[in-house]
Amino acid sequence: MLKYDRNQAHYLVVTGILVKDGKYLLVKRSEKEKAFPGKWTVPGGKVEVLDYVLKEKDTSEHWYGVLEDSLRREVLEEVGFEIEKIGYVTSMVYIRPDGVPALIVSLFAEPSGKEEVKLCSALTEYAWVNLEEAKGYDLIEGIYEELEQLDQMLHEGESVAWKQSG
């Protein structure tokens, strides 16, 4: 019998702030989405066991790069292109409306080619924006601060902590 500790169980989610020519890709969630309908965000989704279990292990017991591989899959599914140069931004926890906690790892990446955005059915619009332009979008709370954090990291070359905008 599988022992389940509700206190330790989370969905694991990766999101990707995609950077191209100094701009960030924002996507708008469909009005049909359960969480944050109609809000603007960045691509991402749940890490799935199938993201690694069918692959050869990197050691006798482990798979490495699982978050990066999951983000590659999610970006391909949601906006239709491949990514490279993946890095870490921040992490946070969100309690979903159904009571399940979700640990969200925010990453950043660059498109690996000149692909055009091809949205999946869960997304309705997209925009490449700079930090100032991002202020004009109805973003999920915290996304703008993640953009600020990444912008500072990219321009100053050092990691900074997430902080709420004043």
Spatial extent as radius of gyration: 16 Å
The CATH architecture would be: Alpha-Beta Complex
Share of residues in strands: 25-35%
User: What is the end-to-end distance?
Assistant: 50 Å
Helix content: 10-25%
How many β-strands, per DSSP?
A: 7
Low-confidence stretches: none
Can you describe what's shown?
The protein has helices spanning about 65-80, 130-135, 145-155, and strands spanning about 10-20, 25-30, 40, 45, 85-95, 100-110, 125-130. By secondary structure, the protein is of the alpha+beta class. The protein has one domain: Alpha-Beta Complex (Nucleoside Triphosphate Pyrophosphohydrolase), CATH 3.90.79. Strands 1, 2, 3, 4, 5, 6 and 7 form a 7-stranded mixed beta sheet that branches. A hairpin with a 2-residue loop joins strand 1 (about 10-20) and strand 2 (about 25-30). The longest helix is centred in the middle third of the chain and has 14 residues, at about 65-80. It is globular. The relative contact order is 0.23.
